[in-house]
Amino acid sequence: MTTEAELTGSAASAAPPPDIEEAEGKPAWGALLVVLAGLFIANIDFFIVNVAIPSLQRNMHATSAEIQLVAATFNIGLSAMLITGGRLGDLYGRRKVFSIGLGLFTLASLACGIAPNMGELIAARAVQGAAAALVIPQVLGILTTAYQGKARAVAFNAYGITMGASAVFGQLIGGLLIKADVFGWDWRTIFLINAPIGAVVLLLSPKTVPESRAEGHTGLDWTGVILVTAGLSAVVLPLVEGREQGWPTWTWECLMASVPLLAAFWYTQRRKAARNRSPLVHPSLFEDRAFGVGVVSLMVFFAAMASFFLVLALYLQEGRGLSALQSGLLFIPLGLGFFIGSAQAPKAAAKLGKQVLTVGAVLQAAGNIALAATAWQLDSSGAVGWCIPAMVLAGFGMGFVVAPLASLVLEGVAPQHAAAASGVFSTAQEMGNAIGIAVIGVVFFGVAGHHGSAHTYAHAFGSSLLVQAGICVLVAALVQLLPRKAETS
Predict the structure, then answer these.
(1) Which residue from 96, 88, 100 is spatially nearest to 214, judged by alpha carbons?
(2) What is the pTM (predicted TM-score) of this model?
(3) Taking the C-alpha atoms of 361, 366, 367 and 369 in order, what is their torsion angle to the nearest 10 degrees?
(4) Which candidate, 356, 395, 344, places its Cα nearest to that of 482?
């Protein structure tokens, strides 16, 4: 029977050649930039589509149900397939699966961009989401196996910045693309822009990115794939669709069904691991407290972060009457704070270890509270520019958390589980997104009412921010459960 130690040794022996790293502990920028470019376009499509909603309604005569499905099908495909996507990389090669996923994502983006009707657009979005689930976990898997020591910390920091930047600037980039209206493409530009970027990344990938895979495992755990896909879909679908439809009976039935499905998934994973039969997610991953606690902390943090972007966009566009581009421009101060925080986070992490996450979460909570107070003070008539200082502070806090989080959580993961672990990591992020948007959406629209005014939107925005501040404080508390060894060197 192959032992865990033997598997670790064999994976290490199959590691890529040392020339992937440059001198002075910095990662080879070619490989890093290539995989992060693929990550950026796959992740930004979660956020950018919201900007296209008015154009879709106008040009495609889309119903509200169809608009919901444009977002929901991507989210469900992505969330449900991330764990499977990660495991496929471990088994068949992380670069290979990254390239296959990116090729499929690029083709699906083209299909979205040329879709003649809403039915074909929704179908293409589902494929986009599933393809993104093949791309995203491979990035962390590649970085985990390709880099060591300080180079890995730099690469993980760049990963965090890329993930955060795609969220922070999604609205601005989408607004600029639609405003430019290149060739009269309007909303189609946000999808078609993926094609040239995807093509360049696919061309460069085999020349710059090393191949890696887990040794000693054969075959995919199809029972695990079916159970985890069904279980996660049963969670994400009602969370994405529930509020808009008034939480009908089927949403609660799905949520209840997810419990036995996910319980059965975990049971089968433990049995397969005990028999050394290559489970989809090896239970030993969660024996590392840094990983287990870190995944929970990640999910809770992104519940606050994703919902922050939602309520900020709603407040600026619906409450204050700004266009998508105007509101996107107001995301720039948030992005400025994020990049400053991200740049300072590695130095702070070297001194503070895990407590850098605590500092970041508390700063974001403070920014949210200050922004809530500002929105209440402005009400319906004050200049929204007064929100900028609080947005910079909130963005700084986000950067302090997002940039070092992957390094702190994944540093103890064995190489043979690299992509599977990153699949779990990414799934926790997407689940946090869905949970946060569902919960904060209930708070926001509960205060704003069905026919919100500028006054009620300001109060709904402030109330939502206070709940998000509480979630950030919870993140700071969870960080204390991380072991001391989970600290960036």
Answers:
(1) 88
(2) 0.80
(3) 130
(4) 356
